[in-house]
Amino acid sequence: MNVVYELVHWGFYLYYILIIIYILLSWVPQARETPIAYFLARLVEPYLSIFRNLIPPFGMLDISPIVALIALHFMEYGVLYILGLVIGWLA
User: Fold this and answer.
1) Contacts for 4-8 with beta carbons within 8 Å, 24 or more apart?
2) Which ranges does the record mark as transmembrane (predicted)?
């Protein structure tokens, strides 16, 4: 039971890290042209585009990735809670 919980938790953690790396790559001028950046864009951009469509940028500042990370955090807790109910960790 604990293995499933850990796998789900580490999956969300890995996605957090991928989003943060993708955000940091946007600060380096030529970094978005690398194969790693294209790979990260294919993984992260579909999720981030949801928030970019909802939240307009404030001038040069795009806060949608911050909101996306907060939403991902709440999704993780929701999934883990439902998983706990299904498996029977929570009474």
Assistant:
1) 4/83, 4/87, 5/80, 5/83, 5/84, 5/89, 8/76, 8/79, 8/80, 8/83
2) 12-29, 67-90
The 10 Å Cβ neighbour count of residue 33 is 9
Read off the pLDDT band of 59 (50, 70, 90).
confident
User: From CA 5, how far away is CA 84, in angstroms rounded?
Assistant: 8
Q: Over pLDDT 70: what percentage of the chain?
A: 96
Cα–Cα distance between 5 and 81 in angstroms, integer? 10
- Contact at 8 Å (CB) between 27 and 18? no
